[in-house]
Amino acid sequence: MPVPFPTCHWIAAVCLTACLFMPSVETPAAFQPDVVAMVNGQRITDENVKQALAMRGILQDSSADTYSTMLDRLVERSLIRQFLRSRSVTAPKSQLESQMKVVDRILAQEGSPEAALEKLQITRKDLEDELALSLAWQRYVRQVVTEEQLRTHFDKNRTRLDGTKVTASQIFLALPKDASSADAEQKRKQLDALRQKIAAGELTFAEAARKHSESPSAENGGKIGTFAYTGQMPKEIAEAAFSTEESSISEPFRSQYGVHLLHIDEVISGQLSLEDARPQIFRHFENQLWRDTVERLNSGGTVRILGR
């Protein structure tokens, strides 16, 4: 599942580089050809979806699955836009103006802002609408999330939020992208057997890594360095590392690259407070509430995706 709702600065950047820009999908009630979805009376057309695919540079090579995923994302944005409107939640004017100034500065680097927008096949209003949706959603989340919820989340996930770092080593067995579940299970069993041998004292983790790991880190006993929970390692590795105690070995786990086994060499405690982590915690709730709200609106409203 894609990240449900990015931050404003991220939106500004991706809109202007034509990576993940989502066009406005709430078309007027007048007749629209090639309607592919109806969201509580609002139409999403084939043109809307193809425009979004084109903005990502994947229109020509897109599959039916890619088209369907993009359509689902447009449906989500339409649902959230309607939801916010029903609660009279709008983007703070000053923040929207500030974000649009960022957009204007980026466009100016391309020479002519108008030419840059024309190249992207979008208008300044399109950009403003997308940024307004992001800001309005952030405002809504800050209205409904309580201080107690923020504190509870921080306490429950302290090492992931307070700047704690871990030093880790790994044993890695590669898998091709199209590997079957059976192939992955075979690799997992190999690592589980190694884990048992290490636990029994038959060899050290470093010795096992040098002999069996298929990562470049093998020659260094599997050491992959020191890292925080976010921003440095793939999510699967970070999650396993921060779920394993110091001087312990994780269970084998799979990532998009293959199957891993981690040893946590050291845990370095962080010093960040709830106040320091507040922006990151709000991003968590923005994503969680987005998913929950879309699911609720999908079950309670009228969404028809034609052809499914």
The portion of residues forming beta strands comes to 5-15%
The tally of helices reads: 12
At the first level of CATH, the class of the largest domain is Mainly Alpha
Number of strands: 7
Order of helices and strands: HEEHHHHHHHEHHEHEEHE
Q: Assembly state here?
A: single chain
CATH topology of the largest domain: Triger factor/SurA peptide-binding fold
Can you tag this structure with a few keywords?
single chain, 308 residues, alpha+beta, Triger factor/SurA peptide-binding fold, 2 domains, 4-stranded antiparallel β-sheet, 3-stranded antiparallel β-sheet, 53% helix
Briefly, what is this?
By secondary structure, this protein is α+β, with helices and mostly antiparallel strands. It contains twelve helices and seven strands. A hairpin with a 2-residue loop joins strand 1 (35-39) and strand 2.
Q: Explain this structure to me?
A:
This protein is an alpha+beta fold. It has two domains: 8-152 and 280-305, Triger factor/SurA peptide-binding fold (Orthogonal Bundle); 165-268, Chitinase A, domain 3. The chain contains twelve helices and seven strands. The protein has a four-stranded antiparallel β-sheet with strand order 4-3-6-5, sandwiched between helices. A three-stranded antiparallel β-sheet has the order 2-1-7. Helix 1 runs antiparallel to helix 6 (124-144) and helix 2 crosses helix 3 (64-86). The two termini are 19 Å apart. The model is unreliable at 1-32 (pLDDT under 50).
